[in-house]
Amino acid sequence: MKKHLVFVGLILSITLIVVATFQYPGGSALDKDSPGFSWTQNFFSNLFRPVAINGMANKARILAIAGTALLSMTYCLFFLNFVKKLPAVVGSAFIKIAGPSSMVCTFLIVTPLHDIMSAMASILFLLTMVMITSFILRTKLVAIKLACSTCVLLFIIFLLGYVRGQWDLLPALQKVVFLSMIFLTICLDYLTHAKHFSTIAGA
Asked: What pLDDT score was predicted for residue 201?
């Protein structure tokens, strides 16, 4: 069971968040009168608001916060487990610190500190995934090399869109990045082993 904790944590956290989307009253940045939660118009952060954008009490909040808390803890576990597969070099130490730190910031997104925590979580998570990708690129895991590179690129595109204020495309892209990262995390958790990194001498 222990080796499946990350998978189980991801599935449970996603389930909580998805159920929360069905309880969101409505409203988005593009249309404050839109009904319910739209996967192409709403951000996940809309689920954390005490009052929905349409002005109604947000019944989705508790489940969304619970899902985010579980997701953050699951990713902390994933990062700490993944580091154990790596050689004791600077890069692995960075992942061990920056990965869990990004998840602390991710959970704090549900608080009034949303804006600054969102920025910090994004930067730390991106740097962590870039470091993980740098290790993967030095292995013979061709498919995972492609998956890591694609996910990092998608995340960078999302962040650039956020900086440029392309709000019409960002909600949908957020879901693509989210699901891609979940898939990649499961692959990294199950398909990588210490032997794949045994030839890496430095970072």
From this structure: 62
